[in-house]
Design goal:
Strand content of chain A: under 5%
Protein name (chains A, B): TetR/AcrR family transcriptional regulator
Organism (chains A, B): Streptomyces gobitricini
Helix content of chain A: over 70%
Order of helices and strands of chain A: HHHHHHHHH
InterPro entries (chains A, B): DNA-bd_HTH_TetR-type_CS (IPR023772), Homeodomain-like_sf (IPR009057), HTH-type_TetR-like_transc_reg (IPR050109), HTH_TetR (IPR001647), KstR2_TetR_C (IPR041490), Tet_transcr_reg_TetR-rel_C_sf (IPR036271)
Radius of gyration of chain A: 19 Å
Keywords (chains A, B): DNA-binding, Repressor, Transcription, Transcription regulation
Oligomer: homodimer
Pfam families (chains A, B): TetR_C_24, TetR_N
DNA sequence: CCGCACATACCGACTGGTTAGTCTGTCCCT
DNA sequence: AGGGACAGACTAACCAGTCGGTATGTGCGG
């Protein structure tokens, strides 16, 4: 633990990850050089390769973190003690809010996933599927109860909603007229209205 | 018009554009080298730089083509002689079908737009906004007529729908269970159901 | 109807610049 | 004195774009 915080409060690995996240989101993964990352983080290549095996590992860490967070939150909302339509609405709104609050991670996630090597990509996809499936189960539960329409396959509904979540990083601006909560309310509303039986 | 079709039916410029589109979609813009493109197209760098000013021009051409196509189709559907909900449904479904039929263009469009230089990016965004506004006008028309709910701002509804269109390139597989038309019907349905007053 | 001038359509070696990752060394803490 | 935490020069591989060259066709004066 020698120079780990070296002139700055946050430890080097976290600082590198945060810097890389910002730069990846701003310029894209390929356009961001390792040199740029270490300079912006105030260290050198030696430090980066001391903590991370490769540039790609950095990218994977971004994914791992965001996936962990979202899965935890979804599980909490989906497993709550409330009617299924309320639970779905809460979960749908929450993923919008947390996505907006981490827009950098989101744009990296959706724009740079294909930069990962096949094996790491597979790993991320598997995690992603778990999330997708939990969400789908919620919709199917409501359909079975007769609360939601069965006109559209649950799978497609999930993709419909996540399409809009995905899209947030393209159009949402923090200085725009809508707060994250307002956007979340609207999008959850649209989903529930589309689903009502 | 010397060797323009050189052993192949299609002229060199189109062949280069088609090859580049495929490779950009498969590997991303940055991961695709000019050398790779010309080899796959069966020509050399000399030919590519004879017809295109830069690698970026190739990318911009992909955008220009897809934007032109979609704008034309939207204008046709939006300006048809039918009730507003029917026109919106048709337009919404059509953009899904044409997006699926040109999935390569779509994934490039949504994943590589930030690779364009600021000025070209601005140009593409302006075109994109025209499209967005035409679609929004359709929704506002329905809202004014009382056919669509005014609970959600029209802008947000447009982004909601295009989020799902955008997302298609992530999950849609031609060998999956749903035909492009079926997906289009479902997605248009969801939109109309979310909007009904 | 010939042959010369010019243009278009390419070829492919080369250049200048960039990049991820390596490796040897140094400093400091324990 | 030994090891974790870095520093920074170095390397090997690429890559976009250039440039001088060649081949084929086209218009035109004689």
């Amino acid at each position: 633990m020698a120079r780990t915080t070296d002139g700055n409060g946050t430890p080097v690995p976290q600082r590198l990850l945060a810097t890389a996240t910002r730069l990846f989101a701003e310029q894209g993964y390929d356009r961001t050089s390792v040199q740029e990352i270490v300079e912006a983080a105030g260290v050198t290549k030696g430090a980066l390769y001391h903590y991370f095996g490769s540039k790609e590992d950095l990218l994977q860490e971004v994914y791992a973190r965001v996936l962990r967070l979202q899965q935890e939150r979804l599980d909490a909302f989906a497993g709550a003690d409330a009617p299924v339509d309320q639970r779905l609405r809460d979960a749908a709104a929450d993923v919008v809010v947390t996505t907006i609050e981490n827009l950098d991670d989101a744009s990296i996630f959706f724009r740079s996933m294909h930069h990962l090597s096949p094996e790491k990509n597979k790993q991320v996809r598997a995690e992603r599927r778990r999330y997708h499936e939990r969400f789908r189960a919620l919709i199917e539960e409501g359909q079975a109860e007769g609360v939601f329409s069965t006109a559209t396959p649950a799978d497609l509904v999930v993709d419909y909603h996540f399409g809009s979540v995905h899209h947030l990083s393209t159009w949402y601006r923090p200085d725009g007229p809508l707060s994250p909560q307002q956007v979340a309310e609207h999008l959850a509303d649209l989903l529930l209205r589309a689903l009502r039986a």
